[in-house]
Design goal:
Blueprint (H helix, E strand, L loop, with lengths): L1 E7 L3 H11 L5 E4 L7 H5 L1 H15 L19 H24 L5 E2 L3 E5 L2 E4 L2 E10 L3 E3 L12 E2 L13 E5 L3 H12 L3 E6 L10 H12 L3 E4 L4 E4 L4 E5 L2 E5 L1 E4 L3 E3 L33 E3 L10 H16 L12 E4 L4 E6 L10 E7 L4 H6 L5 E7 L5 E8 L2 H13 L4 H5 L9 H12 L23
Parallel strand pairs: 1-2, 1-6, 2-3, 6-17, 8-15, 9-10, 9-15, 10-11
Antiparallel strand pairs: 4-5, 5-6, 7-16, 12-13, 13-14, 18-19, 19-22, 20-21, 21-22
Helix pairs in contact: 1-7, 3-4, 3-5
Length: 469
């Protein structure tokens, strides 16, 4: 059997690649044994946000009294109903991705594929020769082999959203984006949560001030045990978790220690290439080509950012290069990551630890007294924005703040356009909005960079009263 291009994996990256390839040829195959529907829609972005929205809605009752709204103590949560809504809407989102997959029904082959070489694939009982190959097999949650003895007590993002209910006591192991979101959501739904992380810093943050603000907020909601490896053993109640001087029994454990690329038995060894310690090949991030082979790798399987918008971009780049006359390098978008806890966490552009200490300055704002945030009782968190010390060009930001995802998108555009603090401060900011907090940080930043002189509205000093600024 022969075809022009084989795409292994029908997730976000694979579908994006298929769209690009289909612009040039219908002679390609999309191979995936299933389940179809993309990680984001089935077990990732969407069901997790549905759970978070329910948790935040119920948690909001704790502020009712201060707004003059009485009898919040009469409210109760029906976990089974919460999870049913999660599944119902999750299935709706999955159906929409399946419609996109259906577009390629003539090219779809529901088999597990294995590379036999740079131009040959085995899929089921078929041997397929092709000109180009795109590997987009995605990733899955990491569950250590030693945990298999008590797997009946282990949940991951793959099966968590199919639960009808949860145990009274739950341990969350890992405090990256997934662990942090799930830990807070379950806690807000009334479940006794203890969360464990080996790092003192949460959600990928590198700025200590921002991390401390986030930690202070979260510690008021559930127990965090940081800086120690968590050891798990089977116990009478379920699982005994030990970390440092802490030891406790839990009926359920949610494994959120990371995701691993789906490269098992994919046949990379048949490409005659070097693999790193994780079994990954060297990939050009601008072309997504593996060395000089007619093979491209896209999406979570690259084990780089594992974010939906990056996976979609990967698919487009790989798909274009697979059918182009020559391989092109692409500029990538400004790095952007958001964690949907409260306060929200966002990292945009360069992180603090990646910057040269003598070459940048930082502006900051504490959201505890920010006007609009106080009005909504979301006044918690901290924001730091970084710029080149000499030019004032914006470089990046880290934040744990209300609506951080929206603020980060604004900054991402500014960084992408290579704007300076002066230029961004020339933007009008309405009153009262959360962006006034960002303006405070930018003004702090502006005071620390070299100035070119001359009057400009962006250089107006703060009057320390938001209604007058």
């Amino acid at each position: 059997m022969r075809t022009d291009v084989v795409i292994i994996g029908a997730g976000t990256a694979g579908l994006a690649a298929a769209r690009e390839v289909s612009k040039q040829t219908a002679d390609f195959l999309l191979i995936d044994p299933g389940p179809l529907g993309t990680t984001c829609a089935r077990v990732g972005c969407m069901p997790s946000k549905l759970l978070i929205e329910a948790a935040n809605a119920y948690h909001r009752r704790l502020s009712f009294e201060s707004f003059g709204i009485r009898h919040a103590d009469r409210l109760d949560v029906d976990i089974a109903a919460v999870m049913k809504r999660v599944r119902d809407l999750r299935d709706f989102f999955v159906d929409s991705t399946l419609e996109a997959t259906q577009r390629f029904s003539k090219q779809l082959l529901r088999e597990k594929a294995c590379l036999l070489g740079p131009n040959r694939i085995e899929a089921g009982d078929k041997i397929i020769d092709c000109q180009k190959i795109i590997v987009a097999t995605g990733s899955r949650p990491i569950v250590p082999e030693s945990w298999q003895d008590f797997s009946e007590h282990i949940l991951t993002s793959d099966n968590l959203f199919d639960q009808r209910g949860f145990a009274e006591s739950v341990a969350v192991i890992g405090l990256g984006a997934i662990g942090l979101e799930i830990a807070q959501a379950l806690s807000r739904l009334g479940i006794n949560v203890t969360a464990f992380g080996t790092d003192e810093r949460l959600a990928g943050l590198s700025d200590n001030a921002v991390n401390q603000a986030l930690l202070t907020s979260l510690q008021a909601e559930f127990v965090l045990k940081l800086g120690e490896e968590a050891d798990l053993e089977k116990s009478a109640k379920g699982i005994q978790v030990t970390a440092g001087d802490f030891s406790g029994e839990f009926e359920q454990v949610i494994a959120a220690i990371g995701r691993q690329p789906n490269l098992d038995n994919i046949g990379l060894e048949n490409l005659d290439i070097k693999l790193d310690e994780q079994g990954l090949p060297a990939v050009n991030s601008q072309t997504l080509q593996i060395e000089d082979l007619p093979v491209f790798i896209a999406g979570d399987v690259r084990a780089d950012t594992m974010l939906l918008h990056e996976a979609a971009d990967d698919g487009r780049i790989a798909g274009h290069n697979a059918v182009a006359q020559s391989v092109s390098s692409y500029c990538r978008r400004i790095p952007l990551a958001v964690v949907f806890c409260e306060p929200e966490v966002a990292i945009v552009g360069q992180r603090a630890e990646a910057l040269e200490p003598q070459a940048f300055v930082a502006g900051e704002v504490d959201f505890s007294n920010q006007g609009r945030a106080r009005a909504a009782q979301t006044n918690a968190g901290y924001l730091k924005v970084y710029a080149d010390k000499q030019s004032g060009k914006l470089l990046g930001a880290e934040m744990a703040a209300p609506a951080a995802g929206h603020l980060a998108h604004l900054l991402a555009l500014a960084i992408q356009q290579e704007l300076t603090t002066t230029q961004l401060l020339s933007m009008p900011i309405y009153h009262p909005v959360l962006e006034e907090g960002l303006r405070t940080a930018l003004r702090d930043l502006q005071s620390k960079v070299s100035k070119n002189g001359g009057f400009d509205l962006s250089r107006c000093e703060a009057m320390n009263a938001e209604a007058l600024d």
